[in-house]
């Protein structure tokens, strides 16, 4: 299919070239983008774009939510449509074939509401927020593919993504879903994709990063923005996190024709994202899917008092010796601690892997994938590296170090994220906290904060540990 979308053999070669460029980009030294898109550089700083890409790479299916979708219509008096099947959308046959070929049987929760609005006549603008993995990308790709006119050979749909790699991921979804729409082609407006001066872009869908798109539109005049009929701003929360991207996006949006359909997507909706969304999308409908709340109700929490790092390690070994552990994830506060622990455990014959911020996104994705496949039993990581990554199938979490904020206050949110589960799945979990004596007050604060009991275990008392029934 790629060759069709890319326009015959030349297109296939182009795809190949960009793909090899893509893998080069995952090597930090070869990062041609010059932005922090592939590695977490600073402890404490969360790389939203890298996390978003990681989650996409490791996700195998839709994340369904039990929360209902909130809809705010531009015109509250117009009837609200939702669809339970893709057939109801009266899509082009080739597009429907593409959707089924991807294994989609029915619209996801957000798609039920968003698709009728996105495909309505006249086109409607939309701001949509729902957690990562709920089907947003698939929804706007479907909207773009259903609105292009394959016979018109110029850019008609423009999608902005925060990084090169995320743009390529979206392009892959266009290629998959558009598998049978043989005359529709996609083009990447990303740095490194050089277009000769005076070349006419004949591809109907352009996906790119704001800087390069701006350059192609205003400086190099490769794209005529007045001919764009669908404008998508994906991952708005990540976008506004990157300096300059909000302004670039707004400049591009200002040059679009008034009849152009404008769509904005975000996984989160802090005030800053909302303000940006309102600035850039005129007269929007708004769809929100609330995130599932995490709870500690079904988690058995324990702590073990330890004197120093070696002691904590011994306590960990005792747990290992006493209960059958399926898969565990162990959190350390620093990379140094994480590395030290990994070496100790490997020397003692455990199968562990270390997820560290120094690794490239692809390396991290492969480690998580191996862990998910059960190839390693234990994943050791730092919080910065694992935050936002979905490894919730694990039943045992060990806080080798408690999560703290600057000023030595407990980091409650991180504690909850590490060990909390959504109530819906009702799975039981087990959490062990290795506590140095001087850190005990922090643990007590966590206990009070969540109003949930964290029981003390004697690290030496194997019988007591063995009694844990979860
Ligand atoms: N209707 C559907 N039925 C089955 N699978 C689906 C459906 N829609 C999307 N998916 C699949 O679910 C996964 C998540 O979808 P998608 O990437 O569109 O979510 P997203 O909300 O855009 O996530 P992110 O915020 O990370 O970009 C993908 O593997 C996608 O192929």
The gist of it:
The chain has 470 residues and is of the alpha/beta class. Helix content is 38%, strand content 17%.
Span of the ends, CA to CA: 49 Å
Averaged pLDDT, please?
83
**What is the C-alpha radius of gyration, as a whole number of Å?**
24 Å
Shape: elongated
**CATH fold-type name of the largest domain:** Rossmann fold
Compute the number of strand runs. 19
Task: Kindly estimate the percentage of residues that lie in beta strands according to DSSP.
Answer: 15-25%
Secondary structural class: alpha/beta
| Poorly predicted ranges | 1-45
Instruction: Give the spatial strand order of the biggest sheet.
Output: 1-8-2-7-6-3-5-4
CATH superfamily of the largest domain: P-loop containing nucleotide triphosphate hydrolases
Helix content: 25-40%
Question: Which ligands, by name, code or SMILES, are bound?
Answer: adenosine-5'-triphosphate
The CATH architecture classification of the largest domain is 3-Layer(aba) Sandwich
The CATH class of the largest domain: Alpha Beta
The figure for the number of domains is 2
Number of helices: 18
Protein name: RNA helicase
EC number: 3.6.4.13
Pfam families: DEAD (PF00270), Helicase_C (PF00271)
Keywords: ATP-binding, Cytoplasm, Helicase, Hydrolase, Nucleotide-binding, Nucleus, RNA-binding
């Amino acid at each position: 299919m790629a060759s069709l979308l890319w326009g015959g053999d030349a297109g296939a070669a182009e795809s190949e070239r960009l793909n090899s460029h893509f893998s080069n980009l995952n090597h930090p030294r070869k990062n041609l983008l010059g932005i922090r898109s592939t590695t977490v550089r600073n402890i404490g700083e969360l790389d939203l774009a890298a996390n978003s890409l990681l989650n996409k790479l490791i996700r195998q299916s839709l994340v369904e939510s039990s929360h209902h979708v909130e809809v705010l219509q531009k015109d509250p008096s117009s009837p609200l449509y939702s669809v339970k099947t893709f057939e109801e959308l009266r899509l082009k046959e080739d597009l429907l074939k593409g959707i089924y070929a991807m294994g989609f049987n029915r619209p996801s929760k957000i798609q039920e509401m968003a698709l009728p609005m996105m495909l309505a006549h006249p086109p409607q603008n939309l701001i949509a927020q729902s957690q990562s993995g709920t089907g947003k990308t698939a929804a706007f790709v479907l909207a773009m593919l259903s609105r292009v006119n394959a016979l018109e050979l110029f850019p008609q749909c423009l999608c902005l993504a925060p990084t090169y790699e995320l743009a390529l991921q979206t392009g892959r979804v266009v290629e998959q879903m558009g598998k049978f729409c043989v005359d529709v082609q996609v083009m990447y407006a990303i740095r490194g994709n050089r277009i000769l001066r005076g070349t006419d872009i004949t591809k109907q869908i352009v996906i790119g990063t704001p800087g390069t798109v701006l350059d192609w539109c205003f400086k190099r005049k490769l794209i005529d923005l007045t001919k764009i009929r669908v404008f998508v701003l994906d991952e708005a929360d990540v976008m506004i996190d990157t300096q300059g991207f909000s302004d670039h996006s707004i400049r591009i949006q200002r040059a679009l024709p008034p009849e152009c359909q404008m769509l904005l997507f975000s996984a989160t909706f802090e005030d800053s994202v909302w303000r940006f969304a309102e600035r850039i999308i005129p007269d929007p409908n708004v769809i929100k899917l609330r995130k599932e709340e995490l709870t500690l109700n079904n988690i058995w929490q324990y702590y073990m008092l330890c004197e120093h790092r070696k002691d904590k390690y011994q306590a960990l070994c005792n747990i290992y010796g006493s209960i059958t552990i399926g898969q565990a994830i162990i959190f350390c506060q620093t990379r140094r601690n994480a590395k030290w622990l990994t070496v100790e455990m490997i020397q003692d014959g455990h199968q562990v892997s270390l997820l560290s911020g120094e690794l490239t996104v692809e390396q991290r994705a492969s480690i998580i994938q191996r862990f998910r496949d059960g190839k390693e039993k234990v994943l050791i990581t730092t919080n910065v590296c694992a935050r936002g990554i979905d490894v919730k199938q694990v039943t045992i979490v060990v806080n080798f170090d408690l999560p703290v904020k600057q000023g030595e206050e407990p980091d409650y949110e991180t504690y909850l994220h590490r060990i909390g589960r959504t109530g819906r799945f009702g799975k039981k979990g087990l959490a062990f906290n290795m506590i140095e004596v001087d850190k005990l007050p922090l643990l007590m604060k966590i206990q009070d904060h969540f109003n949930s009991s964290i029981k003390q275990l004697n690290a030496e008392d194997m019988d007591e540990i063995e009694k844990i029934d979860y």
